[in-house]
What we know:
With 349 residues, this protein is α/β, with parallel strands linked by helices. It has 2 domains: 2-77, Fe-S cluster assembly (FSCA) (GMP Synthetase, Chain A, domain 3); 90-339, P-loop containing nucleotide triphosphate hydrolases (Rossmann fold, 3-Layer(aba) Sandwich). 32% of the residues lie in helices and 21% in strands. It has helices at residues 2-9, 51-63, 105-118, 135-138, 181-193, 213-221, 235-250, 298-306, 310-313, 318-339; strands at 27-33, 36-43, 70-77, 90-97, 123-127, 147-148, 154-155, 157-159, 162-165, 200-206, 226-231, 255-260, 265-266, 273-274, 290-293. The strands form 4 sheets. An 8-stranded mixed β-sheet has the order 8-9-5-10-4-11-12-15, with helices on both faces. It has a 3-stranded mixed β-sheet with strand order 1-2-3, covered by helices on one side. A two-stranded antiparallel ribbon has the order 6-7. Helix 3 crosses helix 10 and helix 5 crosses helix 6.
Amino acid sequence: MRDALWTALKTVNDPELHRDLVSLGMIERAEVEGRVAHVKVNLTTPACPLKGKIEGDVRAAVLSVPGIEDVAVTFGAMVRTGGQPALPGVKHVLLVGSGKGGVGKSSVAVNVAAALARDGARVGLMDADVYGPSVAHMLGEGGARVTANAERKMQPLTAHGLRFLSMANLSPAGQALVWRGPMLHSAIQQFLKDAAWGDLDYLIVDLPPGTGDVQLSLTQTIQVTGAVIVTTPQDVALIDAARAIDMFRKASVPVLGVVENMSYFVAPDTGLTYDLFGRGGSRKLGSLPMLGEVPIDVAARQDADAGLPTVLAHPESTAAQALTQVARNLAGRVSVQALSDLPEQLPVL
């Protein structure tokens, strides 16, 4: 019966990777005890957006095996890399960028990082917006100071289940940094290579707006898994978003998808939806995957000012649910990206 169980599991495909769970090496355990099958599936990310579908498909396939009357499905997760890790211990570096300021890029980066960490991933968040760092404030740690460990490496701070570094925690509050390109490059190098990030599934990097020195330093220094573009729907933002997409393509960084922020507004008193900036405008950017549409939300702004990601403060709100789905869709895109370098067949353990 065990052989029949494994044969049945070979008919179940990962809905994003479009290969069966057995050849992908995602089945850690498949045994039969009496008339009950016990199956453990290792997802390619703790934030798998289609976990429910995978469970349903596994149940249906296993229950088709004669003699099996019930199935207990459990899950683990193992984030895979397509090649060499970007940094020691860091499986994926993901850049969150925009063509212009004011589109809510940092808010998206913070909430995506927090959502991935809440789902069980090991997450780091690097604030690469050296001139206008805001990540520390949004995490409620604006007054914290970065220290060095025994190996004289910067020790990332921790907040809400993730590790982070920001220039706001290294320079005096309110002090402007008047730096030229070489100094920016040196700072980015230190954040990446002189910090004790530890073992991470994802390192989210909040980029400054535009297509300048920081973006070039990052893409030329380490292997980046991919980039996310944050934009608002109106044409004036889309023009600059297109420039950011072009920059990443020229730097050979895959663009994993687009987040349309401030996509719409739901009036709290009437429940009516208003497309203040032209919802869906980001689809003009072409065939890039749409990771999600995030509404304007007063509570999300208040949460950011209070130093608590809205996905944690108000997880049931429309904005928080949209941002959580963005995080899970992004994790799914990373899994697809990593698959391209995996062997066609993996051994069954």
